[in-house]
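Consortium newsletter contribution from the modelling node. Members have asked for a concrete example of what our holo predictions look like. Here is one, prepared for the magnesium ion complex that several groups have been discussing at recent meetings.
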Amino acid sequence: MKTRLLGVDEIDVAADMIRRGGIVGMPTETVYGLAASAFNETAVANIFVAKGRPQDNPLIVHIASLDTLYELCESVPDVALEVAKRYWPGPLTMVFKKKPVVPHCVTAGMDTVAVRFTAHPVAQELIRRSGLPIAAPSANVSGYPSPTTAAHVMRDLSGKIDAVIDGGSCECGVESTVLSVFGQPRLLRPGSVTLEQLREIVPDVVVDKALRGEVRDDEKVSAPGMKYRHYAPSAPVVAVCGSVKASAEYILREMKAGELCICYSDCVSLFENRLCVEFGKSDDKEALARGIFGALRKADELSPTRIYVQCPDDGGVGLAVANRIKKAAGFNVVDADGVLSCL
Ligand code: AMP
Ligand code: MG
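And here is the predicted structure:
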């Protein structure tokens, strides 16, 4: 199949593809998604095939109006409405008890459904013009860093999907925050809506243990996606936490020929004669979020034998950035400040 690269003035073409059961890469404010009708089981199956996604990893359903939420979910708790009032449309997904109308292939057999109301105007328009809720995981090959440009999507999925809409670079750069509101509110995946922001509305939100370390393959987890090694280039990755100075010094000490460092922009001069890729200023965590996946991809293209990454602390969006880096590292984490554990 030839994959068409569409402009943002061709949303109608993409909506038509989706109505006919096709799959299309779409820009969102987080990362590019791979969109299909949530009600078309063949199209949903094709998403799993195109990505090579494990069957037990459910998809997020994207909506462009609150009415659709009630069509998909058995119940919408008050806490979800409060969170929605503040952060929808936006980079936030909530997990609800599903109605039977949501196919099991979308939810990987679970009786819950993850729903997101994206703020991206192109994605919103695509959902509206399709007239359907849209199932869309990130538009990358499973396990590889998420795509933040249309070129990333093309690199991973060209020939396997109908089209990609080129909406430029993604504003957030890391995938949506996932909050389960089914029972005890639980943060399943950190994102651009931060834990601190959620706590203002949901003071009793708990953090899922999968965020803190590797989960065994046979272990039951709340968000199945959390158990896979993710966002990972081919080379082994080491996440180096600690102060800017200490992490840079640690990497300079450890790095050998052929190894690469993904570093803060303010540290580039230290790595002058080494393989290095920068991903944003150390004091600008939003920039680090925007840059991390592109940097991981760029690092991979240089075929290093090992990749060290300077890893920010968990404050604000740092929690999401550090989570992606630690997952890329398979939780191979070093604390350059010398504290026993920084998890
Ligand atoms: P992605 O599509 O790549 O953004 O990944 C979607 C994330 O949402 C994965 O980590 C999934 O495991 C998670 N997710 C999707 N549906 C559910 C659900 N019903 N319950 C819990 N987590 C979910
Ligand atoms: Mg993904």
